[in-house]
Write a structure and sequence with these properties.
Strand content: under 5%
Distance between the termini: 25 Å
Number of strands: 0
Number of helices: 2
Mean pLDDT: 92
Order of helices and strands: HH
Largest sheet: none
Number of domains: 1
Low-confidence stretches: none
Shape: elongated
């Protein structure tokens, strides 16, 4: 069950990352929006490693 949750969260993060990058490279967004979307994409990329470790035991 945890593997399914991990898969769904990873897929959701992938979609959010693609949407954020599409917004960055869109000509209709302003400079401030591009910076905000790039920061959001960075946070999404960093969150993937946390999702991949979900359910595993942390080393002591």
């Amino acid at each position: 069950m945890l593997a399914v949750i991990r898969l769904v969260l990873t897929a959701l993060l992938a979609v959010l990352f693609v949407v954020a990058m599409a917004g960055v490279f869109s000509s209709g967004t302003g400079m401030v929006e591009k910076v905000v979307l790039a920061c959001a994409a960075l946070l999404i990329a960093l969150a993937v490693s946390s999702v991949r470790r979900l359910g595993t035991h942390a080393p002591h």
